[in-house]
């Protein structure tokens, strides 16, 4: 039975949310009638053709701009202005090249006004969480691609965001490194109980990481289907490729995407 004082489990709600940009060349309709509910602690992946409005959806949750129509709610309230509950990471890690790993991770802690001692302890904790303890004194130019991502992830977590908005964060990594980062990300977000919205063009990644996968139509994007991924929370991503359920789910996702892929080829 739901009690009045139960916490709201629907953390993010899109209700017929639409976005049209006004540009010098006329209006650009990016999203149309988006309906999606994300529960606290869920890992949702977003897939769809290029330009279908996936980043636009993340931007609306972050409060970078409001929807032109419909509603975007966070924890029961309309998102108005920047949403301080979310952390945003894009394909570019935006590390400060003149700062060490420790000093990069410390940026949000400095902004939050933590003392030097508190910052040192928190940076050590975050560096340990992402496996960068030995590299805290290195500069970004001395790091591998995966280490840079880990550093950016630690800095994002330093803000203590409730929700992570990740826009193709591993797109530039090679297959092995990407798999490692996927395993680490899942383990970190589950241990910390974060809610995640993760945009990807990689359909294998979309299945491997998600509790549910939202599939967009070609722009103006609307959500065609939300695919349930009924795999265990604690899943071994290394062995997943051999799991018949994974193989079938990935095939279903490819089938769902087929009309748009065929259309793209015909253009
Ligand atoms: N600030 C903006 N001003 C004008 N048009 C925009 C703006 N942001 C996005 N658009 C347009 O809205 C549409 C959706 O863009 P969006 O970046 O959300 O798509 P996407 O699905 O994330 O694309 P991709 O997979 O290529 O990153 C595109 O036509 C894009 O050109």
Automatic annotation (TrEMBL):
Residues 12-243 form the ABC transporter domain. Signal peptide: none annotated. SUPFAM superfamilies: P-loop containing nucleoside triphosphate hydrolases. InterPro entries: AAA+_ATPase, ABC_transporter-like_ATP-bd, ABC_transporter_ATP-bind, P-loop_NTPase. Pfam families: ABC_tran. One of its GO terms (molecular function) is ATP hydrolysis activity. Keywords: ATP-binding, Nucleotide-binding, Plasmid, Transport. Belongs to the ABC transporter superfamily. PANTHER family: ALIPHATIC SULFONATES IMPORT ATP-BINDING PROTEIN SSUB, TAURINE IMPORT ATP-BINDING PROTEIN-RELATED. This is ABC transporter.
């Amino acid at each position: 039975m739901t009690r009045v004082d139960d916490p709201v489990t629907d953390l993010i709600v899109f209700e017929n949310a639409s976005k049209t940009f006004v540009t010098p060349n006329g209006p650009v309709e990016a999203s149309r009638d988006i309906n999606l509910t994300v529960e606290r602690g869920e890992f949702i992946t977003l897939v769809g053709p290029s330009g279908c409005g996936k980043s636009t959806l993340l931007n609306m949750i972050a409060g970078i701009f409001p929807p032109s129509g419909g509603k975007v709610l966070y924890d029961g309230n309309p998102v108005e202005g920047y949403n301080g509950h979310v952390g945003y990471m894009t394909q570019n890690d935006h590390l400060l090249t003149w700062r060490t790993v420790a000093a990069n991770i410390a940026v949000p802690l400095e902004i939050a006004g933590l003392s030097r001692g508190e910052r040192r302890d928190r940076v050590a904790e975050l560096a340990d969480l992402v496996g960068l303890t030995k590299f805290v004194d290195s500069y970004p130019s001395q790091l591998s691609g995966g280490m840079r991502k880990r550093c950016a992830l630690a800095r994002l977590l330093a803000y203590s965001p409730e929700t992570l908005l990740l826009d193709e964060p591993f797109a530039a990594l090679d297959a092995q490194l990407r798999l490692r980062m996927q395993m680490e990300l899942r383990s970190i977000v589950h241990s910390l109980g974060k809610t995640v919205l993760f945009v990807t063009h990689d359909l294998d990644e979309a299945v491997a990481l998600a509790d549910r996968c939202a599939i967009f139509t070609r722009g103006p994007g609307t959500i065609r289907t939300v695919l349930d991924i009924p795999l265990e929370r604690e899943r071994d991503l290394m062995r997943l490729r051999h799991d018949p359920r994974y193989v079938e789910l990935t095939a279903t996702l490819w089938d769902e995407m087929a009309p748009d892929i065929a259309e793209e080829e015909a253009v």
